[in-house]
Amino acid sequence: MKLYSYFRSSASFRVRIALQIKGLPYDYQAVHLLRGEHRDPAYASMVGDALVPALVTDEGAVLPQSMAIMEYLEELHPTPALLPATPLARARVRGLAQMVACEIHPLNNPRVLKYLTGTLGADEEAKTTWYRHWVRQGLEAFERQLVLLAAERQAAGDSPSVYCWGESPTLADCCLVPQIFNARRFEVPLAGLPLTMAAFDACMALPAFQQAQPSACPDHQI
Amino acid sequence: MKLYSYFRSSASFRVRIALQIKGLPYDYQAVHLLRGEHRDPAYASMVGDALVPALVTDEGAVLPQSMAIMEYLEELHPTPALLPATPLARARVRGLAQMVACEIHPLNNPRVLKYLTGTLGADEEAKTTWYRHWVRQGLEAFERQLVLLAAERQAAGDSPSVYCWGESPTLADCCLVPQIFNARRFEVPLAGLPLTMAAFDACMALPAFQQAQPSACPDHQI
């Protein structure tokens, strides 16, 4: 397999974590977003949305969209599992993952920030305020959901979660961890999010998350 | 089952389509977003992200996030299927769905538009330009992906798609149709998107999509 990735791309980071957890080897193909390499005709003609990540399967199919890629990896390589066993638990995990992928991250990717400062003429301070607003608001919602799920697990007699949901990392953690990396880069306050940050810390104690992080990528610049 | 929904919410509309296609009866619980009913403590204490939709299962579990809800419905009620049979085809469908759910829709929901005109002080014209920009750019990417998938199907000897992917509606159509409804409401130009609009038209010829549309909702206002 081949992964088109940019070291700092949060969506690429998700897929790198999933590949590491599952122990799947892959060729790393750097696509430098800030240099606009995703708009190169050779890349854009292969990937409909011209974004990263894109996974190229061993059969040569090119798959866009991080969430779809991770579900594909889960179906083909179910162990170690990134989704729990029951439909309800899977909905819990997917719901958390989508809270990051559909509510937080889309508002803060480079093309959106560029539109703010370019077309809308926002200054750097307004851009940073925008960024922090959506990340903080989204993470507070994430924390509230973790509190609800903790109560649900307790009521069901299940042990407290170590990660976002349960005792092993899931798709939810694959989404949360890159978002926290980005939050820290933009100095978003992370106080008052105890369950969220406990899950983050538990993840970062695992080699798979360490190996997938931006600073471990071939295209990482000091 | 019970669905917390707002007639005009694109994410609610997705789930309504899935429920209709699968023929699953449900209680419709209106949450009026513009009146801020989603922020009522009774609702917000039940749904971590305080957004719509939320599905309440027969066992009383409250599930947020439309994509997670649809996957849950698909797992519990696999027929008629909203996902095709093979992992690659499923990745194709999920990829298209996420192109709407993660790239287009998040930039245009009411809370984002409100931030633009409120905090950022954008005028109505700048807001509408923002809306049209992201929807048009996202739908063009969607169309490019449909073109790539049409070539892939042809190379594999498969028949041309009737819907977004294949010969029956999928999660991709559940996401696309509400986005086109919203695009029309904001007068986004839809010329030059032949495969996308053919899929939309094929969907709207089906009773399930008609029955799920905003004007068929109990909370629809004339």
Features:
homodimer, 222 residues, alpha+beta, Glutaredoxin, Glutathione S-transferase Yfyf (Class Pi), Chain A, domain 2, four-stranded mixed β-sheet, 9 helices
Task: Tell me what you see in this structure.
Two copies of one chain form a homodimer. Chain A is of the alpha+beta class and about 220 residues long. Chain A folds into two domains: about 80 residues, Glutaredoxin; about 120 residues, Up-down Bundle (Glutathione S-transferase Yfyf (Class Pi), Chain A, domain 2), CATH 1.20.1050.10. Chain A has nine helices and four strands, in the order βαβαββααααααα. Chain A has a four-stranded mixed β-sheet, with helices on one face. In chain A, a hairpin with a 5-residue loop joins β3 and β4. The longest helix of chain A has about 30 residues. The first copy, chain A, is globular, with a radius of gyration of 17 Å. At the A-B interface, β4, α3, α4, α5 and α6 of A face β4, α3, α4, α5 and α6 of B.
In a few lines, what is going on in this structure?
Chain A has 222 residues and is of the alpha+beta class. Chain A has helices spanning 10-21, 41-44, 66-76, 87-104, 110-117, 124-155, 171-185, 194-204, 207-212, and strands at residues 2-5, 27-30, 54-56, 62-64.
